[in-house]
Amino acid sequence: MPRNLKGLDLTEGSIPGTLIIFALPYLAANILQSLYGAVDLFVVGLYCTAESVAAVSTGTQVTQIITSLITGLTLGSTILIGSYMGERDEENVRKTIGTTLTIFFFTSIIMTVLLLVFIDEILSMLQTPPESFALTKEYVSICAYGCLFICGYNAISAILRGYGDSRSPMLFVLIACVLNIALDFLFVASFGMGVGGTALATVISQGASMVIAVIYLRRRNFIFDFRPRSFIPEKKIALHLAKVGIPISFQEMAVRISFLYLTAVMNAIGVYSAAVVGISAKYDVFAMLSATSLANALAAITAQNYGRGSIGRARKSLWLSLLFALCVAAAFWLWAQLSPETMIGVFTDDEAVINEGIPFFRSCSYDYIAVTLVFILNGYINGMQKTVWTMISCTFGALALRIPLVYLFSQHFPDDLGKLGLIAPSVSAIMACYTLIYVLKGKKAPKQAIHH
């Protein structure tokens, strides 16, 4: 008889031990998931042209909008399930899982249709270089058909993390990552499929990950049985998921839109600048992985502890998470200051791209540290279900600060990538200041379940 799959109780035991045990698989899964885009870019840079590199760079920015929207919504599920787990309310845990999976099935269909219908307009808005427009469209079109798999995998992973299980999502994405790497080399290096091959490899590997996850959970007697009747959504829970998840998703979208605007500005400068910002985006992901992983893990830990009424334990987890994440961010910042050319050289040996990228990497790397503060603090606030505040904060930073600054700098310093690179860390530093003040001055939440 298969063993039951049990989650970790995040409200008991050593705080450092709980944080490490829960967050490390989270971090490992995020590292592996980030390899999707990085491997695509690496393989294309190895076997294809600068136009192909620019196409994958821009195309990845578009697909990251979808991923940001989905992960924002699914984090709402993590938080709500974590809160119910803290209360030991298994019935509402089951209802939340069924409602989440049903909502994301229909969400994936809507996303696929919208992406395919408006793809030309989206790429035009990004000022995609003419020489790479067709390749970028090919990449995004193929990835659009994988929305169901992206939604499915992220929904299941979010559910498990709220349940207290961060190891299973790591295993699922490990399988997908290995398959993606193998297919990238097969389709691009062996079959010469170029940009389309990398997109197809991503879709197939994501689909495999989702299917394996469902089979695994059914065999392990998971709390949710995956029977048709269990997928009927509960109106009350759906509304609560929307209340918690939509603000997170909206803030993720606002931040992504602001960076897409930066991408459009860099694309307008030229294909080499477009390649630089694409490569930089990959390092942003890796440098901030510890922060994003710990922030999301902290949201689950905070949700369970607030559901139980353990406010002090949640606070201690916050400061410990901040310490760990800053150490990693500082290491990447130091690399960018001492040897930015080696960072860029991992993805391309084109001297023009490397020379354009050095000043941009040196200046934008300060964001590794500044945005770490923002991510961790927001993770704690989200865990308390105060997601409207983080939405307002991040939307203000993205739309009222970052986009106007990008516009002003692009008008006055259009060829100075070093100055353009300073915008992100400047905005993040401002956001970190007022977010820290909010956390330090925030009142303690009541010791009953925060969703009641």
Structure description:
- The chain is mainly α and 452 residues long.
- The chain is built from 18 helices and no strands.
- Helix 7 packs antiparallel against helix 8, helix 9 (235-269) crosses helix 10 (271-287) and helix 16 (387-412) runs antiparallel to helix 18.
- The radius of gyration is 21 Å and the shape is globular.
- The two termini are 38 Å apart.
- The model is unreliable at 445-452 (pLDDT under 50).
Question: How is this structure best summarized?
Answer:
This protein has 452 residues and is mainly alpha-helical.
Overall geometry: globular
Number of helices: 18
Average pLDDT level: 83
Order of helices and strands: HHHHHHHHHHHHHHHHHH
What is the topology?
Layout: H1 15-47, H2 50-87, H3 90-117, H4 119-125, H5 130-144, H6 147-163, H7 167-190, H8 194-219, H9 235-269, H10 271-287, H11 289-308, H12 311-338, H13 340-345, H14 351-364, H15 366-383, H16 387-412, H17 417-420, H18 423-441
